[in-house]
Amino acid sequence: MKILDIRGCYLTIDAMGTQETIAREIVKAGGHYVLKVKKNQRILMADIKAFFDKNATSDITDFFDTEMEKNHGREEYREEYREYYISSCTDCISDKKKWDTVKAIGMVVVHKWIGDKQEVTEHFYIMDTEMKAEMFVRTTRSHWNIECGLHWRLDVIFNEDRSRNREGHSVANLSAVRKLVFNMAKMDSSFGKISFEKKLTRYRYNFDNIENLIFCVMPRLNF
């Protein structure tokens, strides 16, 4: 966190990053956070769930819902509908000393239909600043657009989910390499407007294209 300028930025992290030390570091650096809460913070999740079970439709909760969305997932066609709830009432958090930076809590209820089967899931969040439901929608959706888009490509194009490497640090190392290759190839505009898959094919069958990416394209980019 110390090497990043996050002043005024909203950081979204999945549940593995929902730690009180990380939350404090973000706030200390001048940033804001929207962190997902799962069972790795079981008590906090139970506190938030209990609050919204009782107060989801009350005046102390801001609400926003989406239109029905039609998506083609990895396996089949589905429809989704989301409800967003957010409140600045954080007295429900039992360990206030641990979560002293939390100023708002949120819940997203996802209604999903795959064929004739309906599934309802609840997702819980903590934030360091008060916000309207519309802002809550933008931050969480931006996170998942990146997350799902990247993971889908890593799985479909790089076969990440089918990888069988398990030795030592190989899982983390290969994951980092795949993400590096993905980002480098995505920034390469030297081929004009062609698909990501066609770029990879050109790298695969002509080493000159890889050399051009590393020694010509990348040095010209402004990070």
Any overview of this molecule?
The protein is of the alpha+beta class. The protein is built from six helices and seven strands, in the order E-H-E-H-E-E-E-E-E-H-H-H-H. Strands 1, 2, 3, 4, 5, 6 and 7 form a seven-stranded mixed sheet that branches. Strand 6 and strand 7 form a beta hairpin. The longest helix is centred in the middle third of the chain and has 24 residues.
* Number of separate helices: 6
Number of domains: 2
Major sheet description: 7 strands, mixed
Number of strands: 7
Find the structural class using helix and strand composition: alpha+beta
Span between termini: 17 Å
Q: Tell me the fraction of residues in β-strands, as a range.
A: 15-25%
Share of helical residues: 25-40%
Q: Flag low-confidence runs.
A: none
Q: In one word, what is the shape?
A: globular
Reading the helices and strands in chain order gives EHEHEEEEEHHHH
Provide a compact summary of the structure.
With 223 residues, the chain is an alpha+beta fold. The chain has helices at 20-28, 42-55, 133-156, 170-187, 196-205, 207-217, and strands spanning 10-13, 32-37, 62-65, 69-72, 77-87, 104-114, 117-127.
List key phrases describing it:
seven-stranded mixed sheet; 223 residues; 6 helices; alpha+beta
SSE arrangement:
Blueprint: E1 10-13, H1 20-28, E2 32-37, H2 42-55, E3 62-65, E4 69-72, E5 77-87, E6 104-114, E7 117-127, H3 133-156, H4 170-187, H5 196-205, H6 207-217
Parallel strand pairs: 1-2
Antiparallel strand pairs: 2-7, 3-5, 4-5, 5-6, 6-7
